[in-house]
Automatic annotation (TrEMBL):
Origin species: Steccherinum ochraceum
GO terms assigned for molecular function: metal ion binding; serine-type endopeptidase activity; tripeptidyl-peptidase activity
Signal peptide: none
GO-annotated cellular components: extracellular region
EC number: 3.4.14.10
UniProt keyword annotations, A-Z: Calcium, Glycoprotein, Hydrolase, Metal-binding, Protease, Secreted, Serine protease, Signal, Virulence, Zymogen
Protein name, UniProt field: tripeptidyl-peptidase II
Pfam families in alphabetical order: Peptidase_S8, Pro-kuma_activ
Length: 543
């Protein structure tokens, strides 16, 4: 046996309460080593770098499977080990790089030379069976990337935006004939404010193939009646009957009782449909029957979309967790899945988080806590701004990954920032890590309809669907001209810093510090800044 993964202790807030019951059933997943992960990265960058001759020539799933499918010798070694131990496994992906099986704790302890224990999260009271280290047989070394869930812990901080000022009367649409952003947008943000801030036209999209996907988790449901009220009051130029299609996985659903409407789901749907005028929008509801364990459907939804012949061109997600709760091997597996979907031509956007440099914890940390998956270099992380003129929102999570190294597309921008930062926060972050967020959008005092009332919400969970909507509108114009959608965004974004409104004021406090200050150019509070739609449209080569 050879030690495969370990962690020195449980994440902050988790305490070991004793050995797990030997009869308890574990649902384990194994990630098999992939044939050519470096080749996948090269292929993704080749179709994503604007200067590449193959820019926009996205890959098919069959082409991607050649990179990620296990080698025959890997399949043979793992199948032989499964047979020797009388284990029947199920493939979870088309390429076969993930398999799943169930077995009792007693057998898992023997197979992986470990002791699974019960851990309790002190704040939530939730219990889970985990270990701090495990081994694999030497004959599987080089064939198995990881066994999950083992040293990865659940996400205890699945927070939602706070709905404030319920009952507030909507003002209706703002007159956009003026160049100036209406003063009311400083305290109440509507779709019209987004259009005014970022020069977004109200012209409706025309391309039916250009789907915008909105992911839904933790039983957050998007309500049709609230959407109808939202559009009637705040986008009266769109039909109030405009709606979304529904996809479900892992037992997901979308019930329509008013009391079941979710703040996050309503926000995400209202600000995609309400800003991406006319773009076909799909709400993808992930249920609680996870196939990916503590990833809580994050990997399941990507595999679900990879199985589609035409996955959405844009996917926005307003959920995440602290990077330190997830093993580095598992983080890399999920990041690899984002590469696959990006290579298919999907732009993947995530909210960066709402705890400043503290991730989900405001004071207990002594070093900065990056969020996940924002540290993954193959997705686009979206921070938040507040006010008019815009300044960085103090809650906007940002920083540097402790798992992923800095990608080449941002190296110049990050180096410029670090030079200007000097010794501030020295030792509290990994200066060689992938910096995030990449971009930002308004995320404070955002008006939504929720359970029959109007009110305000705040968070980077507002910013991601707003930025995703602008990407979808650009894709609409590209596709209308016979061109490819943008796909993986970051090389394009960092190549065009002039297409953003640079945010140079504010910071993102946490861990008993002021966090990072926003500065000229990229910064780990608002990224490159907020979008200038006409300039981004021109940079993309769309009229």
């Amino acid at each position: 046996m050879q030690l495969h993964e370990s962690r020195p202790e449980a994440p902050d807030g988790f305490v070991k309460t004793g050995a797990a019951s030997p009869d308890a059933t574990l649902k384990l997943r194994i990630a098999l080593s992939q044939a050519d992960p470096a080749g996948l990265t090269d292929a993704l960058m080749d179709v994503s770098e604007p200067t590449s001759a193959n820019y926009g020539q996205h890959l098919t799933q069959a082409e991607i499977d050649k990179f990620v499918a296990p080698k025959p010798e890997t399949v043979t070694a793992v199948d032989q080990w499964l047979a020797e131990n009388d284990i029947s496994a199920t493939k979870l992906t088309t390429s076969g790089n993930w398999i799943s099986f169930e077995l009792p704790v007693s057998k898992a302890n023997d197979l992986f030379d470990t002791e699974f224990s019960t851990f309790k999260h002190e704040e939530t009271g939730d219990e889970s069976i985990r270990t701090l280290a495990y081994s694999i047989p030497t004959e599987l070394v080089g064939h198995v990337n990881l066994v999950h869930p083992t040293i990865t812990f659940p996400n205890p901080f699945a927070t939602l935006p706070v709905f404030s000022s319920p009952g507030k009367a909507p003002r209706g649409a703002v007159n956009l004939t003026s160049e100036a952003v209406p003063a009311s947008c400083a305290t109440t943000v509507t779709p019209a404010c987004v259009q005014a801030l970022y020069s977004v036209p109200t012209t409706k999209a025309t391309q039916s193939s250009n789907v915008l996907g909105v992911s839904g988790f933790i039983e957050q449901f998007a309500n049709q009646a609230d959407l109808k009220s939202f559009l009637a009051n705040l986008r009266p130029d769109l039909s109030s009957s405009t709606t979304f299609t529904l996809q479900t996985l892992d037992g997901g659903q979308n019930p329509q009782a008013q009391s079941q409407a979710g703040i996050e789901a309503n926000l995400d749907i209202q600000y995609t449909i309400g800003v991406a005028s006319g773009v076909p929008t799909t709400f993808i509801s992930v249920g609680e029957n996870f196939q990916d364990g503590d990833l809580e459907g994050f990997l399941d939804i990507i595999n679900f979309l990879l199985n589609e012949s035409n996955p959405p061109h844009v996917l926005t997600t307003s959920y995440g967790q602290n990077e330190n709760t997830i093993s580095s091997s598992l983080a890399n597996e999920l990041c690899n899945a984002y590469q696959q979907l990006g290579a298919r031509g999907t732009s993947i956007l995530f909210a960066s988080g709402d705890g400043g440099v503290a991730g989900s914890q405001s004071s207990r940390c002594t070093t900065f806590l990056p969020t996940f998956p924002s540290g993954c270099p193959f997705m686009t992380s979206v921070g938040a701004t507040t006010g008019v003129p815009e300044t960085s929102a103090p809650f906007s999570s940002g920083g540097f990954s402790n798992v992923f190294t800095q990608p080449s597309y941002q190296s110049t921008a990050v180096a410029t920032y670090l030079k200007a930062l000097g010794s501030t926060n020295s030792g509290k972050f990994n200066a060689k890590g992938r910096g995030f967020p990449d971009v930002a959008a308004v995320g404070d005092n955002v008006e939504i309809a929720f359970q029959g009332q109007f009110g305000l919400v705040a968070g980077t969970s507002c910013s991601s669907p707003i930025f995703a909507s602008l990407v979808s509108l650009i894709n609409d114009r590209l596709i209308a001209q016979g061109k490819s959608p943008l796909g993986f965004l970051n090389p394009f974004l960092y190549a065009n810093p002039g297409a953003f409104n640079d945010i140079t004021t504010g910071d993102n406090p946490g861990c008993n510090t002021n966090g990072f200050p926003a500065k000229a150019g990229w910064d780990p509070v608002t990224g490159l800044g907020t979008p200038n739609f006409p300039k981004l449209l021109a940079a993309a080569g769309a009229s």
